Structures are given as C-alpha cells and as structure tokens.
Amino acid sequence: MTITNPLLLQNPIESIDKISPDHVEPAISQIIKENQSVIDAVVLKAEQSPDKITWQNFMLPLEILEDRLAKAWSPVSHLNSVCNSKELRQAYDQAIALLTDYSTLMG
Prior knowledge:
This protein is mainly α. The protein is built from 3 helices and no strands. The chain starts with 20 loop residues before the first helix and ends with a helix.
C-alpha cells in the first residue's frame, strides 16, 4: 500500500485530517522544485521569443504554480494556528525557510 502525501493532492484542504508534520517539508520542497523547473522553462521560452510573450504563455503558468503552492501551504498554516505542537512548529519553520527563499527568487 502506497501512502500519499495529502499536501500533494489536488485539493489538500479536503484531507486536512490526514496531514502530519512529516508531510510538510517534503511536499513544500517538491512543489518548489517542480515550480522552479516550470519557471525556468517559461523564462527560457520568453527569452527566446520575447515578441511572443502573452499573459497566457507567461503569467498564467506562473499563477497556476503559485496557486498549487498556496493550496499546499494553506492547511499547514491553518493547522499551525489551531493544532500547534512541537513537531508541527518544527515542520512549519522548515517550510517557512523554503518559502522565504522561493519568494525571494520569485521577486
């Protein structure tokens, strides 16, 4: 039986009761890594054809990436507020560091 990280599901908030601190850092790391790959591809394509940049081929893919990350982070942030524990605080802090680095890169 394969255990799936609920934070990597389409709508992780629906599985909030299955989220554990062990899910947080791996999920956020994976999403950021996948986002960075897509961002690199989108930017490369834009650099190769700057006259063909549109909302659809540049900003929309970035918006979709940000939405996925937000959907994964939202239940973690909520759980940290309402079910705080030592383990969750540690996972939250690890993920915050990753998100800070990612936000800096995106800026």
